[in-house]
Amino acid sequence: MLYNVVDIQNILPHRYPFLLVDRITELSEGEYIEGFKNISISEPVFQGHFPGHPIYPGVMIIEGMAQAGGVLAFKSMDVSSQEEIENKVVYFMSIDNAKFRSPVTPGDQLVYKISVIKNKGAVWQLDAKAYVDDKVVAQAELKAMIVDK
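Above: the chain's sequence. Below: its structure in token form.
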């Protein structure tokens, strides 16, 4: 384990119930990150999606992949920029080629695997995939930018 949920909260501004990364398990600065979220029946989203047939929403999977990508972008910044992290935030610019392959349900561990396609300054283009039991359940190309709050 590289970063637990408390460490992640020191990197990202997100908080419960919208912090969607529980742990970071692998990180290669400027290249790759892997982390996961444990999907529990106690997730607030299951109150309405769907009663009696809980399915974790695809938009939440995309957001979780983006948050993992945000950790990658922040931890890939130079040291002096990382010291200013509390004054920065990552904004989505685009989501392309999103595909949802299989439903995600309570009890699943959603593993995020994010690779850098391109990084130019504050802009990051990412290849994002989410897995359950080594099977791709969602994927997308994400573009984001680190900006001042």
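The longest helix spans residues 58-76.
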